[in-house]
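A quick aside before the break. I want you to see a complete sequence-to-structure record at least once, exactly as it would be stored in a machine-readable document. Don't worry about memorizing anything.
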Amino acid sequence: MYHDLTKGSISRSLLLFALPMMAGNLLQQFYNIADTLIVGRVLGKNALAAVGSSYTLMTFLTSIFLGLSMGSGALFSIYRGKGDERALKSSIAHACGLILAVTLVLNAVVYIFIDPILSFLRVPEEVWGGMREYLLIIFAGLLATSLYNFFSCLLRALGNSTVPLVFLAVSAILNIAWDLLFVAVFHWGIAGAAYATIFAQYVSGIGILLYVLFRCRSLFPERKDLCFDGGILKEIAGLSSLTCLQQSVMNFGILMVQGLVNSFGATTMAAFAAAVKIDTFAYLPVQDFGNAYSTFIAQNYGAGNKERIHRGTKESFAISTAFSLVISALVFAFAAPLMQIFVSSAETAVIASGIRYLRIEGAFYFGIGCLFLLYGYYRAIKRAEMSVVLTVISLGIRVLLAYVLSATFLGETGIWMAIPIGWILADLTGLLYMRKTW
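That is the input. The structure line, written in tokens, reads:
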């Protein structure tokens, strides 16, 4: 189903468009949730720390493809809003070639520099071997991740958020089944969890590629659209590179925090690995709502509907804030049971550390919800450089304060406190600039 977000009820259209995206990304989290849960229960604390730290690194790498795809997707939405089919097809061809080239280069780089990467992350000796083994396998799935992100962003940009959900649902179920088979039954250890994930990633990546090829021929570029167009490539490169930079800076900051967490040892690493999964699940719906809002803004920006953009922005901030407050209350109340899903009740130190993280950061989910909307807004109106500024403020403050506060009597708690402070300062900056430009 394709949604035209330039007409009809704003809140209803946004929610109907966002719901499949929310469901899809919740399913996508099962790739890593399954690894974390099964590895933590079957293989123990050190294996959990290795897979958890690998997840942070893979999120950073994936953010590069996701940023390029999201930037391209904003441009696709604008062309759809304008009704310019020729420019839309040409931009699809140029964006696909650009993202494929970046994927292949990045894949080669991470294999060549795997040991320096582990050293940079300050991985403890007892975790090093398991994390290296996991990464050597999981890196093979980067191409599949790139394929899925590009074609899902393409379909969502044009108003179809349902098909990406279908492919993720199938691959998530397969991922969990293969995790259980390879780790719990075949006893392949950490390698089994990695194989389960990349097999599932290729199911979703190749599946959505075939769907677009055979079911969306009207979107597929024709021979005349494959001619080089410097103007379109410049637009794609400008918007995509800034969005990619924003996503990469955001996740690089998280990677820096991961390195600091690793310096506190395997217990804190395991707590962080489990708590981040809960954290991501908790605010994932507002992240996807922010992406849906970005498509709404881009389509209406292309159509010139300024008044609808203003009304949609007010309604979107109200919805996101209300949802975030409810989720914050639930996470605060159920922090202990949530941690025990991933960690044995005997690991009391790991659970206590994870609870502190969830109750400090989880109280401020409205901050990250607002930030996702600001990212989407500036990307959609071709001011992606502002998203980069907000990310630098959010992550720069987070990293700086994490290192400063953790060196005091606060210890690891200082790392957790730094995160919401960065969110709120970035929100204030983005809202003030939005008000000024309006």
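Two observations worth writing down. DSSP finds 16 helices and no strands in the chain. Residues 191 and 283 are 29 Å apart (CA to CA). We'll return to this after the break.
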